[in-house]
Amino acid sequence: MRSFILLIDTVISIYIWLLVASVVLSWLVAFNVVNTYNRFVATVGDMLYRLTEPALRPIRNILPNLGGIDISPMVLILLLVFLRNLLFEYFYY
Fold this sequence. Notes:
By secondary structure, the protein is mostly helical. It has helices at 2-30, 39-62, 72-92.
């Protein structure tokens, strides 16, 4: 059972890092630091979008419009950290 819990913990950690990478890439694109016409940047951006958007879309639908600020990745990261801590609290010890 421990190895399964550690696997879930690793998957959650990887997904959190993917969320962070998606946010950083969106900032770099918004401030014209990277060019989306570059094939590698476009491929990485598309991959990150396809991996993170299904989890972020329901949160964006619930949150109110804050202008140009999107806090849905932060909310999702907090939920994932809470889920990971809950998993360890109930099943690991």
